[in-house]
Amino acid sequence: xxxxxxxxxxxxxxxxxxRLKALTPVRVVGEVVVMIAAILLDLWPGPWAxxxxxxxxxxxxxxxxxxxxxxxQVFPAVVMIGGAAIPFLGPALMVVLSYTAGRRIESWVKxxxxxxxxxxxxxxxxxxxARPVDIExxxxxxxxxxxxxxGVALPFLVGRYLAQREALVQAMRDRETRMQGExxxxxxxxxxxxxxxxxQDMHDSLGHRLSLISVHAxxxxxxxxxxxxxxxxxxxxxxxxxxxxxxxxxxxxxxRAEDGPDDDPATxxxxxxxxxxxxxxxxxxxxxxxxxxxAHPLPSRVSHAAYRVAQEGLTNAAKHSPGAAVQVTVKYExxxxxxxVRNNPSRSGSSGGEPGVGLIGLTERVRVxxxxxxxxxxPSGGFRIAAVLPYEETALPDEPxxxxxxxxxxxxxxxxxxxxxxxxxxxxxxxxxxxxxxLGAQPVTEVVTQQNLDxxxxxxxxxxxxxxxxxxxxxxxxxxxxxxQASPEPAGARCVYHVTDExxxxxxxxxxxxxxFRDGKLVEKxxxxxxxxx
Length: 534
What we know:
Layout: H1 2-21, H2 25-43, H3 48-51, H4 56-71, H5 76-85, H6 91-104, H7 108-125, H8 137-221, H9 228-252, H10 273-282, E1 287-292, H11 300-320, E2 326-332, E3 336-343, H12 358-368, E4 372-377, E5 383-390, H13 403-416, H14 419-441, H15 450-455, H16 462-468, E6 494-499, E7 509-518, E8 521-531
Helix pairs in contact: 2-4, 2-6, 5-6, 5-7, 6-8, 7-8, 8-9, 8-11, 8-14, 10-11, 11-12
């Protein structure tokens, strides 16, 4: 518990410090203007105008405002509830506190709870006795709901709506910035992938050619008809080929394509393996080609991957096992194409080293084509490269399937942002308008006018007096409340009570006139003030 409180206090302090650091002269001036406006509006023409506060009372009034207004930025919910609990605070301050609470409270649960508690405090603090006209409770509650809706609920909802829109705009700006960065990154990745693809092709093709040159030069060096100078030149040629191949591997062999569209030349297909084997034979490699199964149409990506498997296998065999027999197998199985290159151990017993980085690119190329590559040594001491490739085009394994959802999710946020605040404000307005519409639909009769009151005199007949009096009761005033504080009625008389049209708010009550009749004549016309709360 103590740890949670301490963590909350640290968070509040950090937020306060951040807000202080973010203050600008414009914000400071705005806060000062809000303070002055709230104080002046509540002093005049607000509720303090009648009190004519001065001296220490006025200083205390201003001091409370100067304390609550800055604190509303740090503790918005507490200050809003506390403001509703202080009796002498004016409506202008309450509007400011409610608006700030709506902007600052992030959790909708906390927002609902804080407004509900504020409403309860307003109901408890409402002075039901300070009414200039006695009204029935249902209408008093309607007036209270109206005051709460206009002074607290609507400013709170407006502030919350603006905060939600501001957060949405900021989120969209952040997303746009992030998308721009991702677009730059994607463009860079596309360029790198293209460079990597070119490097892969250069490594596969040029490396293969250099290997054949090296093998062919080695075969020529064994020709007994050549002289020493020719043998030396051939040795230099073979050495240059080997050096060039090593430099090629060192410069571009580490550049591997991670994914991307396959747009390799269409001539390097599974059918081109025949010419590949033929070139290797011309270079002196003991290679055989075995084909099996019924030929099946292949996607370009799969066909090219098969060609690369055969090419890389021949290159590795010529490099690492010179003079060894090589067998290339292309077999159409019922559900997949199998391409295999296997070689026997080198005749000299020497090896050119471990397989190079070319197999890394080959593994990736087969993976992109949807196949599986197997590389490993044979029990006999040779080496085997085999790939199983599908007949159908397959999606890239690393394609982000949920990219579309991520792109469309902000639309849902934009669609629903602020709907709760708008619905809440509409509900408050509907309650207020509906309540007063119901009130206006009730049958209302006029009160006794001063003119008719002056025309009515004691001694007049009851019929004449009743013609000058309104028929029915005033709906806002309870029937029993109009005569509870009147003097005793004359003995044997029948009395009726009506509200006059001239009322005084300073009287803290309602002016009621009583007409008493006896034997068909008006025997009394008397006005009394029905004070509230007595």
